[in-house]
Amino acid sequence: MPKNNSIKSVLIIGSGPIVIGQACEFDYSGSQAARSLREEGIEVTLINSNPATIMTDKVVADNVYLQPLEPESIIEILKNHQIDAVLPTMGGQTALNLAIKCDEMGIWEDYGVAIIGVDIAAIEITENREAFRNLMEQIGVPMAPQATAKSFLEGKEIAQDFGFPLCIRPSYTLGGSGASIVYDPKEFDGLLERGLQLSPIHEVMIDKALLGWKEYELELLRDANDNVVIICSIENFDPMGIHTGDSITVAPAMTLSDTTFQRMRDMAIMMMRSIGNFAGGCNVQFAVSPDENEDIIAIEINPRVSRSSALASKATGYPIAKIASKLAIGYHLDELSNQITKTTSALFEPTLDYVIVKIPRWNFNKFPGTDRRIGLQMKSVGEVMGIGRSFQEALQKACQSLEINRNGLGADGKELTNQDAILHSLENPSWNRLFHVYDAIKLGIPFKTIFEKTKIDTWFLKQIEDLIKLERRIEKYHLGNIPKELMFEAKQKGYADRQVAHLLRCLESEVHNKRSEMGIKRVFKLVDTCAAEFDAKTPYYYSTFEFENESSVSDRKKVVVLGSGPNRIGQGIEFDYSCVHGVLAAKECGYETIMINCNPETVSTDFDTADKLYFEPVFWEHIYDIIQHEKPEGVIVQLGGQTALKLAEKLERYGIKILGTSFDALDLAEDRGRFSKLLEKNNIPFPKYGVVESAEQAIELSKDLGFPLLVRPSYVLGGQKMKIVINKEELEHHVVDIINEMGSNQILLDHFLGGAIEAEADAICDGKDVYIIGVMQHIEPAGIHSGDSYAVLPPYNLGDFVMQQIEDITKKIAVELKTVGLINIQFAIKDDKVYVIEANPRASRTVPFIAKAYDEPYVNYATKVMLGEKKVKDFNFNPKKEGYAIKIPVFSYEKFPDVKKELGPEMKSTGEAIRFIKNLKDPFFTKIYSERNMHLSK
After folding, report:
1. Confidence (pLDDT) at 475
2. How far apart are CA 332 and CA 166, in angstroms?
3. Is residue 709 a contact partner of residue 728, using CB atoms and an 8 Å limit?
4. What keyword terms does UniProt attach to this protein (predicted)?
């Protein structure tokens, strides 16, 4: 059946600010859906309150509403536009909950809006755990023994019947909120109480914990004709008991027998058909017993695009959200073409001739004192994906993508050798358990012990053991006599030159030169959905070490845009927004655009955003090899946050052109000594400061600077390890802490301006002229990280005298730093005097916010300046300045219940929302202004 032509206008509901458990993978899905529907000539209206994402940009939808995700906002949209249908499956649990609420209120019915892509009854049955369990019993799909408790007493009775360990899962929550495994009856009461409180309907499901069972996911798509395709099988490296969002996952499934996989497929299709008659995406999770029987038990089914859909889309090259939205408007799978080959049908199931490994990225260091164990409740803030020809290569590449100062899995001198600490880590999984599995095998702890403590399948353990055996063979040689075969094997198994250099006791550059001499070169393979049986038309590549290169180089002028790697606190989706706009602007200027990034959740790694996508770690060796292959005009580093910026020095050293602001200017802004001299020369005030390398020096310097002091390591993002100290004891303790944890040899001490007002300015500069795109005033006093502050655009009570100083200083610094592109400067204002805290000559966290508030494509303009295509005076700036826009920080504290909710110079928020107000009498503004001192910590 072709598409339903009566649908001319669709409303897509987004997922709101980024929180743990619901991140930018839903923005990716929503952006894809919007593009997919617009291809069909359908008008797309979008509602989402998140300003940091490309999803809420004019390039994505016809009408964008940056408004709270509430029924009132929906009613306003329906009054303004003739909407035929709403697609609520692209915005995670938030969008679904809002759609159900509007349905219950009769809003869709009142305005004649059809709900497409999902069946509300299907959602109800999958969220109501008891009804779902009964349905599974009817169709003969086994589940773990479980029961529903609507009261504390019922919960106690169930626990008595089942015995421990148990899982408690609140109904209708996201990212495993409130879920826990209980081993000890003493802990049960408190966790049961918490689960009942967190569930919006005060109900929990208690099930017998299937600890140690293997966990799998299948991603499915179904059309209205009941055709079903399995897009991807995903195996969790971690066993049951760890939330899939916190598990290392592998696709395709590695340790599943074919007969069990067929049974699982049949079960998934039967489950999908039983819950309702809807067309779209679906994710089904299973547990499999770790014995010869391979018994299968269903865990849950999500009849919508899920967190794993973005991963499955990137892993297979099959854009699930894009196809799901076409199915929602009536198409059948056999009527749609495969988006990568363009010749085969979308009914054709993807086949992979490579392996992908996803590793989550955590930020526990932002939440001191929290329980760092991972379990049923998701705690990771982002993820990376590595693609390789083998599990080992994909695993190493994923480790290289994480940006946690590791060069891969091991072989970098950072192993843990304390047996008791390793055994404790294996039993209490945290962010580093993968590395400790490697350390355990290397130390000689028996496989049986490792398996008993982790329940990680022996196949995976043997793969890691094989890497350690390879390292021992390499260590017997030195650079001069290592055999070519051994070097080739190391590269095929994903070892970075840095790791090989560590094993051979030489320099990374020497290994690179040696393997180049040997003819061992990185080649690039296509991600093609069909194991190379058909030609792929979309240039989406990963690297490996073989002989045939599938990435042909054109003779067009090219530009490389470096992405920002995994989402984390301090560097999130706002940099992805900038990267996408950078790519689009470079395309407009006639460049062939090349994107390098490893984050599967985002739009920058969509296969048709840039002209060529290299899904690779943002890691020096990979970037250098791609640049040598493609020979671009230059590289854009100022859009990918600190990740891309950190690579500027290497690019400079290797003679690769940095487009826009030069490396010297970037370094000048980061080097506190040089930057302060520049400020002094220009009579620009800044807080008294000094640089120290030890606690003794810090104490000595504090006598001159005076307390309170702001203490921080140099070259960090998101205020990492930044703290305000008020006496010598605290100063000494924190300096020692930084040196031990970060190995930082340069620590900055600034006199802290207590009670100051904080503000920041973003500007575009072409080296000569400067245009200030926006000045934002923070509501909280100085001392709270800018990412955690409510901020108002334009400022709400800075007088003309202060504003003039801010404008003059911004223009002066931008020109003095020879900025070409974007710059962000942060200020503290005390007694009407403006002090400069820092300058960042790159896209900042606030640029997307200002671009949305003023409805101007500032990153597009800045990129054209970086490329030398335009000067600042060539643009006709016309910001829409009505009322005020407020940036609202959003936290994920419910995932860390034991952490104090105090704020300080280290950033803790995971996302942000935007709120527009007409004037300062707005009750929203008066409320947050009255609470501005509430969470300030020293």
Report:
1. 97
2. 43
3. no
4. Amino-acid biosynthesis, Arginine biosynthesis, ATP-binding, Ligase, Magnesium, Manganese, Metal-binding, Nucleotide-binding, Pyrimidine biosynthesis, Repeat
